[in-house]
Amino acid sequence: MSRSRVLRGAALAIAACLGMTVLPAGAQAAEPDGPALAKRLTSKVTLDAMNRHLIAFQRISDQTGGRRAPGTPGHEASVDYVVGKLTAAGYDVTTQQFPIPYSEALVERLTVGGTPVKMHMALYTPDTPKGGITGPLAVLPESATPGCAASDFAGANYAGTIALIRRGGCPFAVKQQNAAKAGAIGVIFANNIDGWLRGNLTSPDQAVIPSGGVSQVDGVALRAKAGQTVNLELKVLNEQRTSRTVIAQTKTGRADNVVVAGGHLDSVVEGAGINSNATGSAALLETALQLGGSPKVSNAVRFVFFGAWEFGIIGSPYYVSHLSFEEQLDIALYLNFDAIGSPNAGYFIYDGDTGPYGSGHIKASFVDYLTTRGVPVETTPLNHRSDQLAFLSVGIPSGGLYTGTIGAKSAAQAQKWGGTAGVWFDACYHEACDNLGNVDRVALDRNADAMAWVTASYAVSTEGVNGVPPRSERAGLRSVSRASAMAVAADSI
Known about the structure:
Glucose Oxidase, domain 1; single chain; 2 domains; 493 residues; 15-stranded mixed beta sheet
C-alpha cells in the first residue's frame, strides 16, 4: 500500500473513557527492517481492493433488508461472499454453524413525566403488554456497584416501580434480576460513559423483566425525576436461530504454530455495519487473498470471520471452546481487527502488557510499525470488548488494532490525529448511518498496512524480539495465565 497518501481522515474511539496511555511517535516516516514477505504483502493490500469489499457488503445489506445481522439473510450472504473469495484463492475453507438467541426490537418507547426519552431495548429483554407498563420512577442510590447485590434495594419500596440503575460493576442481568426480586416491574439502565446504551441481559432465560438503556446524559437528567410516572413499551422478537463463522487456513506452514487473525463479520440489526465491522472484515479478506492459500511461510495462517458478535460475542467463544486443548496449543497467537476505519479515527493498540505472555510483544509489533511511519498511537485495554477475549480466556497471546467507536475524541487527540474534538470516534456506531460514507479510508489504509505487516512477520517467525512462547513451552504458561486472563475478560462489562 502506498505510504505517500496524504489524505486526511476523521475517526472515533473510547479513548478518554478508558484511560489510555500515549506511546511515543516516530520522529520521521522511516521504512523499518522486516521480512521480505511482510514488505510484499503490505504493498499488495490496497485501499481500492478493500473498498470493493466494503461496497459488496453494503450492497448485500441493501438487498437483504438493510442489515447483515447474525441469523439474517444479510449475514448469510456475507458469509457466502467471503467463502467464495477465499476458496478461489486456494484456502482450506470451512464454516462453523452454531445456535444463537436472536433478538430484535419491533417497538421501543419510553416516556417519563409525559416526556419521550430515547431508549434502546436491552438485548434479550422480554416484551411488555401492548401499551406498555406504567409505574413510578425509582432511582437506585449511587454506589461503586449499583444493583449488583440484593441489599442495594433495601431501605426503599420498589414494588410496582420502574427502576433506574447506573451501569457498572456487574452484568446487566444481575442488576435486573435483583430489581425484579425487590418488586420492580421494569428497569432503565443508565450509561456510565458518554453515549447511548443498549445493555445485554446475557440470554433470554436470564431476562426476567422488561429492560432498556439510556445515555449517560439522559440518565443524569432522569435522576431528578424520581417518583414521576414512567411508561415503558417494548415489543421484541426473541427466537432461536443459527449463525456461522468462516475459517480459512493456508495449506503451507506449521500446523502446530498457527498465526490466527480474525474479526467479526456481522452487523447490528439496525444497519449495514460498514465501519463495525466490515472494515476489519475487508482488511482481513484482502490480506488473505493477497497472501494466498499456499504461501512460502514457516507458520500456517488462519483467518477467522466470526459470527454473532453483535448478540453478545457468541461466535468466538463458541469457536475457542470447541478446540481441544492440543488445538489451542497449536495457536501461537491471535490478532484482532474490529472497527479500523472510524470516521473520526484514533489509532489504538491493545495493551498486551497485561495479558498472557507474548501479548506485550504483539503490542510492540504494532507500535513499531505505526510509529516508524509517523503515526502516533495510544493503547486501549486488552479487555476491550471484542473477539480476543475468547482467546485470552485460554491463555493465548493476543493483540490488535482499533480506531474507536463510542466516546468523544479529546482536544489533545484531535491535535495529534486530526478530526474533531468533542465528537465520537464513530457517531454512527450501531446505527443505520454506519454505511459506506462512515469510513475514514486513510485510517483503514494505515491499519490494513499494519495488519498485513504484522501477520506476515509472524507467519515467517514467531520468535525474536517480538516473538511469543514456542509450542513446547505453551502448556505450562497457558495454564498459569488462564485465570488472570479470565479476570481481565470479566472486567469488560
